């Protein structure tokens, strides 16, 4: 009789322990979603603030620490960013990049990259939720150019479905005649590939994703052709 009572007690405790584990797992999952969403939102807000200067002439320019010329475009390094001026639709813009063009030339790409986005009305930049906030920066950098210069509707998405996330799961399967997709993910090499309206950017690290994003932007702006 005592053994039966002890067994029932053990089963009851095990059941309780399982419920506690499920509760913790649920909380961890919820916190993970909140962290991912917060990182995306914070990165977008930070870039929005930077963009106020990004598309205007700076009345108090920072001192230059390095200067390079590529394909007729002058790039000046200031406070860790590379600045250049382009003329788009007869309007001058000062743009910032993390890397100068010559430091992105070894990234493997395919011809015709700029044409992928020209007919799309909406562009989804889809991020692997397992990546850190540096990968978010890579996505936001491209969103600035496509949204501000090319007047595209740019949306943030995730490559995997996360329950409770503010962002939808979007992959190459979601592309159409009016929708293009850019997927950022970790890979064994740093490269940019595309098929129809879908572009896949891979990097061996989050920093490499930023470098690849700069390379894609250079091609879209025809700084690299």
* Total tally of structural domains: 1
Q: Please give the CATH class.
A: Alpha Beta
Oligomeric state as shown: single chain
Fraction of residues in helix: 25-40%
Uncertain runs: 6-11, 20-35, 41-56
Radius of gyration: 23 Å
Number of strands: 9
Please report which band the strand proportion falls in: under 5%, 5-15%, 15-25%, 25-35%, 35-45% or over 45%.
Answer: 25-35%
Structural class: alpha/beta
Number of helices: 4
Shape: globular
Instruction: Let me know the average pLDDT.
Output: 76
CATH topology: Chitobiase, domain 2
Going by CATH, the architecture would be 2-Layer Sandwich
Q: What is the H-and-E element order?
A: HEEEEHEHEEEEH
Main beta sheet strand tally, sense and closure? 5 strands, mixed
End-to-end CA span:
84 Å
What topology, given as strand order, has the largest sheet?
A: 6-5-7-9-8
Overview of this protein structure:
Helices cover 39% and strands 25% of the residues. It is an alpha/beta fold. It has a five-stranded mixed beta sheet, covered by helices on one side. Strands 1-2-3-4 form a four-stranded antiparallel beta sheet, with no helix packed on it. β2 (73-78) and β3 form a beta hairpin. It starts with a helix and ends in a 5-residue tail after the last helix. Residues 6-11, 20-35 and 41-56 have low confidence and may be disordered.
């Amino acid at each position: 009789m005592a053994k039966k009572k002890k067994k029932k007690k053990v089963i009851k405790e095990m059941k309780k322990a399982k419920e506690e584990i499920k509760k913790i797992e649920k909380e961890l999952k919820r916190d993970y979603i909140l962290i991912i969403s917060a990182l995306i939102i914070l990165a977008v807000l930070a870039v929005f603030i930077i963009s106020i200067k990004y598309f205007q002439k700076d009345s108090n320019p920072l001192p230059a620490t390095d200067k390079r010329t590529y394909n007729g475009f002058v790039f000046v390094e200031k406070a860790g960013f590379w600045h250049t001026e382009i003329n788009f639709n007869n309007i001058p813009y000062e743009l910032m990049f993390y890397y100068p063009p010559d430091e992105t030339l070894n990234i493997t790409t395919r011809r015709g990259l700029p044409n992928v986005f020209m007919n799309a009305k909406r562009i989804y930049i889809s991020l692997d939720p397992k990546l850190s906030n540096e990968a978010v920066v890579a996505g936001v950098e491209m969103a600035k150019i496509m949204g501000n210069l090319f007047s595209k509707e740019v949306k943030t998405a995730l490559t995997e479905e996360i329950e409770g996330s503010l962002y939808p799961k979007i992959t190459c399967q979601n592309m159409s005649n009016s929708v293009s997709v850019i997927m950022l993910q970790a890979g064994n090499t740093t490269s940019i590939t595309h098929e129809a309206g879908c572009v896949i950017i891979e990097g061996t690290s989050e920093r490499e994703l930023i470098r690849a994003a700069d390379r894609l932007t250079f091609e879209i702006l025809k700084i690299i052709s």
